[in-house]
Amino acid sequence: MAPADQIEIPMRIIIEQPVPGVLHSLQSKDDQPLDPKRSHGGEPLAFDFPIRIAPGPRFLGDQVRREGPERRFVYIRIGQSAGDHASPSSRRMKIDIHDLEPGLLDRAAAGDGVIEIAVNGTGKDGTPACATVRPTGRRLA
């Protein structure tokens, strides 16, 4: 349960066009794979989790990571780092959340839906996307 000055909202990260057969997962609060999933035919992968918003806004939660005073993001672990030790890949995607539009946050806080952030899961070279991955879409579902 969120403290009185915080509002919990549901989030969903959708990995579009993931490399088939490669394991993906959220990163847990203790830096371990969480909710691992594998796309067998390139179908999208979805990861659901809550975040908390405090005045400011400040972004909090088990999956929220920080870098500097303002940047907040969520890691998606890939291949070996997601728990597939036979994978040739060992990567992470960094998906920013600190720049979510205030109107989107307000609507999610009012209970109007889940904030979905979609990203492309395949890099230009055909391997799993990694590092900071720019959203292909953000919406309330």
Structure, briefly:
This protein is mainly beta.
How is this structure best described in words?
The chain is mainly β and 141 residues long. The protein has 1 helix and 11 strands, in the order E-E-E-E-E-E-E-E-H-E-E-E. Strands 2, 3, 6, 7, 8 and 10 form a 6-stranded mixed β-sheet that branches. Strands 5-4-1-9-11 form a 5-stranded mixed β-sheet. A hairpin with a 3-residue loop joins strand 6 and strand 7. The longest helix has 8 residues.
Helix count equals: 1
Poorly predicted spans: none
Secondary structure tally: strands: 11
The largest sheet is: 6 strands, mixed
| Subunit organisation of the chains | single chain
Separation, N- and C-terminal Cα atoms: 23 Å
Structural class: mainly beta
What is the helix fraction of residues, given as a range? under 10%
Key attributes of the depicted protein:
five-stranded mixed beta sheet; six-stranded mixed beta sheet; single chain; 1 helix; mainly beta; 141 residues; 6% helix
Q: Mind sketching the topology for me?
A:
Blueprint: E1 7-16, E2 23-27, E3 33-38, E4 45-54, E5 58-60, E6 64-67, E7 71-79, E8 90-96, H1 102-109, E9 115-120, E10 131-132, E11 135-140
Parallel strand pairs: 1-9, 8-10
Antiparallel strand pairs: 1-4, 2-3, 2-7, 4-5, 6-7, 7-8, 9-11
